[in-house]
Structures are given as C-alpha cells and as structure tokens.
Inverse folding.
C-alpha cells in the first residue's frame, strides 16, 4: 500500500487527524520506553516527535501507549461466541488482531462454515485473519461433516477467505510422508504454516519441519520448547482456559530475554469467564512479567513477534507507517487497559466497548439441524464377555489436553462394566452427529471429577460430535437426548431431569448471546455441574478434548478408542494386561 498521500502530514505541512500527547510509549524497535507525541492520519501513524498539529488532541495523562495486542493462535468458536460477540469482549482488553484457526466450524459445517466466520469478522473493532483448516478431519479416527482436502485449502487461500495454513495436527502424516498431508502443505506453499506437534522431537521433528511448519503451541516442558527453538521453530507459549503452559515455559524468557523475538503468547482455547477474570493478551503480558520476564520482552511476545511471524508488517510496533492500533495502559507490570484505538479510532474505554455490534447473521449453514438418534440407557451398557478381564481407560491429566492410557480392572454390575465414583471412574460416550449416523462409542475416564449424574456437550474437539461423561446410564441418556433436541449445546443432567442447558445453535459451537448473557447461562451450567460435584465449566472444556485423537495418548471418538502414539485404534476390553503393565 502506498502512503505517498500521507507525506504532507508526516512532513508537518498539514494537520493530522489526531495527536497523542503526554504519554510514554513502548518502542519495540529498540526495546526502550520513549517519550514523544504520536501523530495519526487516516488510521496510520505518520510521525513521532514534536511539532505535529491535529484536530483531535488526545491527552494520555502520563499513561503508557503500547501497540495493539496480537493473538497468535486461537479458535474463536471455543469461546462459544460468534466473532462479533468475541470482538466486543476482547477489544476492551487491547486485542487488535487475532490469528484464528476455524477448524472447529469447518468440522461441523465444512468450507461454508469457514466462509461464514470470515463474513462475520468484517467491520469489527479488531482484525481476524483465518488459517485454512489443515486437518479436517484431524485424523482418520474422527468424523467431520465433510473432508477438506488440498484443493479446498488452495481455494480458501486463493479467494482470500484464509491467509495462512492452520495448525498441522497430523504430525505423523508429515514425517511419514503421507501423500494427502503433503498435498495440503504444498497447497499452502508461500504462506505461513502453523504447527501442532506435542512431544515431537529428534528425527521426527526434523521430518516435520521439512513440511514447512514453522511454529508449535503444544510445548509443555522447557526441554521440548528449547529443542524446537533450536531447530528453527517459533514457540507459541499457551495460556488458555484448560491448557496453561506459561509458568512452565516462562523461565526460557527469564534466562534469555532475547528469545522474545521467537516466542508468541497465545491462548488457543478460552472461555468468556476466562476473559472476564484474567483478560486476553493483556493477561499473558501481565503473567509473563509476574514470572520474571522483562516487561518489554513480555510485551513483544504479544505484539511485534506475532506480527513478524505472520508477515503482518503493517502492525506490531509504534512507528511511522504502522497501523494506529494503540492501547493506553497504566503500566506494563499491571497492564491495566485504559483506552483502545483501532486504526486511530477510539473503540473501547474503561473495559467497555464503545460501539454496538449487531448480532451474527446466521444463514442456513450445512449440518445445523442434523437429526441424530441418541442412545437409550440400555444401549449405553457395556456388557462383558468371559475373557474381558480389563478395560482401557483414559487417564485425565488436570489442566492438560494430553491424557494417559490406563489399563484397569472394571467395576462390574450385572455383567456390565460400570462407572464407579469411589474409583473416580466415569463412563464416556460419543455419538456421531455430523453425518447423522448416530454411531455410538463407549469408554471410561479416570480422574474426571464427577460424582453423580452426567454432563454432555457438542463442543468435542475436533469433529465436535456429541460427547458425554456420566456416572449412570439414565443420566447420560437424558443429557444426550437433550443435546440432540437443541441441535447442540451443553447439558447437565441427573437421572431423567435436565438440571441446566445452554443452546449453541451456530454449528453446535457458538451462542448468539452477548458475552455477558452467555456468562449468565454458563453460571447456571456451573452451578448445576457443581451440584453433581463437577467443578465448573473449565472441566467441561477439558471433557471437550477427550475426543481429540491427535493429542496423546488415549482418546475416544465416535469410532472408538484411539492412541496415535500406540498405532491407532485401541480395544475397550482386554483379556490380559499389556506387556509392561
């Protein structure tokens, strides 16, 4: 874009639209705090220093201006808000740009779902750039509405719906040379290719990197993160509602602050409650500083580094020629957002959005009203044969998406393997809904904090079929039946009674409510969940990852148990303990 027409304003020959006075600003070009006036014309920073005049003189009252925050990796659908409602919640926290992966709605509504997200993101007080979903399905063990192949990715990139390739979760397919996976990588050649590689290292990491992948947000240990940085990847430090790796990885930046040029703070998956209580990218900056990361280094991870990584050279810093995405904070340490400007226009103040955003214009997306037959209590029973001595069980790891593969003796009642609250053993069910088959898979969860009743959700990464955890078959059947009646949402049930429910009519993933309205409904869900000793909606988010086959280890999809680290499909029952157990 040519800024030649802005030369008279940069050269102080004409008055600008606005000048920010009486403020310091974070100069991420030289990693220092500088004090100077900032001049803006047509939403672009045209000058810094003395002598600029403008129609609008903005007094920053001694505060600190920082660049608008950039979210490097998230799924808008996981907030359960449409892009419009999400923008209204996130912009007051200083978020100016979001790099989103829409593979959630791509799984439930196909390519038209991705285009819906793009349409709904136009004209918002923050910019949302979408990655073409690289793994729909995430693996052959999941069942989406439709498969998105290499030609679909090429189409989404060519027509401007997407700007980069979304996280390549099928990491074995990359380093094992899967033809279809590599066709997708080749379709995205020349764009940024984002990654997803939990626990991948050594030769496998080398093979993964040959696919052109340049980042990862799944690191949970210093050693893993350091290896990926050494091999040329950008490290996305994740701090979300369920998976929180920031405190574990922050020591890298404490020890070597210069690594902020290769590290991005991201959230991945967050809830409205998480945003309200902790903020968005402002919270990441604040928490990194609390961990001992130098303030400017922490700020760079949420501004200039993601801008450079995604080749958004028009933002991420305060300098002439950059978009005037500016955030006034009281200090970097507290990172309390006072006012927010998007392209030089004030959009939020005092934690509130200043403009009214119209509700989402939901069209008849494919798959929204799919009719699904849900199982009766008898169909949820797991009958054991004479040789079924053991069961495979998903071992839940608190606040992580990774799980363990456990082999336990079942609790048996009337010849059936049952849930057992005394052993923290819940039953899990997944019902296929994207194609209307109603296919049912059953399994068990260990260490999922539920004592009675059932919780069910259509938010079940990544295929988002109906998933349920429960302590008895009647409660589970009730919850799944209500889920099907609503065509998606969240349900808490006990016996034949629905204790609370939340409709998610957009792809079974998003509500049409505002953030405040959604928080009220989620409070009802939380109260109902706590009444059956399931503490809070964050646990429901953790349940939603118990079907994601591409994160180790054992998971349950509509096709049954799978463990990608152990060769794929796994049995529910076993005659004897596996070797080594």
């Amino acid at each position: 874009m040519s800024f030649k027409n802005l030369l008279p304003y940069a050269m102080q020959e004409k008055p600008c639209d606005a000048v920010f006075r009486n403020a310091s600003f974070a100069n991420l070009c030289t990693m220092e705090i500088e004090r100077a006036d900032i001049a803006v014309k047509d939403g672009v920073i045209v000058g810094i220093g003395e002598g600029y005049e403008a129609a609008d003189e903005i007094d920053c009252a001694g505060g600190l201006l920082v660049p608008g925050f950039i979210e490097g990796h998230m799924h808008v659908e996981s907030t359960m808000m449409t892009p419009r409602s999400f923008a209204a919640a996130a912009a007051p926290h200083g978020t100016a740009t979001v790099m989103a992966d829409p593979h959630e709605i791509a799984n439930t509504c196909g390519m038209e779902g991705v285009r819906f997200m793009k349409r709904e993101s136009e004209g918002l007080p923050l910019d949302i750039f979408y990655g073409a979903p690289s793994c729909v399905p995430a693996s052959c063990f999941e069942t989406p509405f439709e498969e998105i192949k290499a030609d679909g990715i090429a189409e989404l990139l060519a027509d401007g719906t997407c700007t980069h390739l979304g996280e390549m979760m099928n990491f074995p397919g990359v380093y094992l040379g899967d033809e279809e996976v590599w066709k997708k990588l080749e379709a995205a050649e020349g764009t940024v290719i984002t990654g997803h590689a939990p626990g991948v290292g050594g030769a496998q990491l080398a093979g993964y990197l040959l696919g052109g992948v340049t980042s990862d947000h799944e690191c949970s240990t210093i050693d893993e993160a350091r290896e990926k940085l050494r091999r040329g990847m950008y490290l996305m430090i994740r701090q979300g509602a369920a998976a929180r790796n920031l405190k574990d990885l922050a020591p890298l930046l404490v020890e070597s602050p210069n690594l902020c040029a290769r590290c991005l703070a991201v959230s991945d998956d967050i809830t409205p409650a998480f945003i309200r209580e902790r903020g968005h990218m402002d919270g990441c900056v604040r928490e990194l500083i609390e961990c001992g990361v130098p303030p400017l280094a922490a700020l760079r991870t949420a501004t200039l580094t993601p801008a450079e990584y995604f080749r958004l050279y028009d933002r991420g810093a305060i300098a002439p020629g950059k978009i005037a995405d500016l955030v006034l904070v009281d200090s970097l340490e507290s990172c309390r957002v006072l006012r927010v400007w998007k392209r030089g226009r004030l959009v939020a103040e005092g934690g509130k959005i200043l403009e009214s955003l119209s509700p989402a214009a939901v069209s008849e997306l494919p798959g929204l009203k799919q009719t699904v037959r849900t199982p009766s209590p008898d169909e949820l029973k797991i009958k054991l044969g004479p040789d079924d001595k053991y069961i495979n069980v998903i071992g839940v790891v608190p606040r992580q998406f990774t799980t363990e593969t456990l082999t336990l003796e079942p609790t048996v009642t009337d010849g059936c393997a049952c849930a057992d609250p005394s052993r923290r053993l819940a039953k899990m069910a997944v019902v296929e809904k994207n194609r209307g088959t109603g296919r049912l898979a059953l399994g068990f969860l260990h260490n999922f904090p539920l004592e009675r009743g059932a919780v069910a959700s259509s938010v079940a990464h990544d295929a988002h079929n109906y998933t349920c955890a429960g302590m008895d078959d009647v409660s589970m059947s009730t919850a799944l039946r209500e889920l099907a009646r609503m065509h998606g949402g969240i349900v808490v049930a006990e016996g034949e009674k629905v204790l609370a429910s939340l409709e998610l009519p957009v792809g079974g993933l998003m509500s049409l409510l505002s953030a405040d309205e959604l928080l009220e409904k989620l409070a009802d869900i939380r109260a109902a969940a706590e009444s059956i000793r399931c503490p809070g909606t964050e646990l429901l988010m953790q349940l939603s990852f118990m079907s994601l086959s591409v994160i180790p280890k054992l998971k349950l999809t509509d096709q049954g148990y799978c463990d990608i680290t152990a060769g794929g499909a796994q049995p529910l029952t076993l005659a004897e303990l596996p070797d080594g157990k």
In short: The domain at 68-314 is CATH 3.20.20.140 (TIM Barrel). DSSP finds 16 helices and 34 strands in the chain. The first helix runs from residue 7 to 10. The longest strand covers residues 390-396.
